[in-house]
Design goal:
The protein is of the alpha+beta class. It is built from one helix and five strands. The chain has one helix at residues 51-76, and strands spanning 3-7, 10-13, 24-29, 32-37, 42-47. A five-stranded antiparallel beta sheet has the order 1-2-3-4-5, covered by helices on one side.
């Protein structure tokens, strides 16, 4: 479960068993977690994140999308 980025206590990471899914990041902080698609930046799943959290996480993901996609393809070899 490599962490690819950290921002304000949020960890952006991949789950190694997610190789069969489209590119995405899991974002975690405390007991909050979101799954964000990378092809079209949008929330796939939300657990305990507020709307304000999600808006900020989407902005950060969009800003770093190219880097996240490169790291996805490096990690999963696709």
């Amino acid at each position: 479960m490599p962490t690819v980025f950290e921002w304000k206590g949020w960890k952006f990471l991949f789950y190694s068993l997610d190789y069969a899914e489209p590119p995405h990041v899991h974002v975690r902080k405390d007991r909050k977690e979101a799954k964000i698609w990378l092809d079209r930046v949008e929330v796939a799943r939300n657990r305990r994140c507020t709307e304000q959290d999600l808006a900020a996480l989407l902005r950060v993901t969009e800003k770093n999308r190219t880097d996240f996609l490169e790291k996805w393809h490096e990690h999963f070899g696709s």
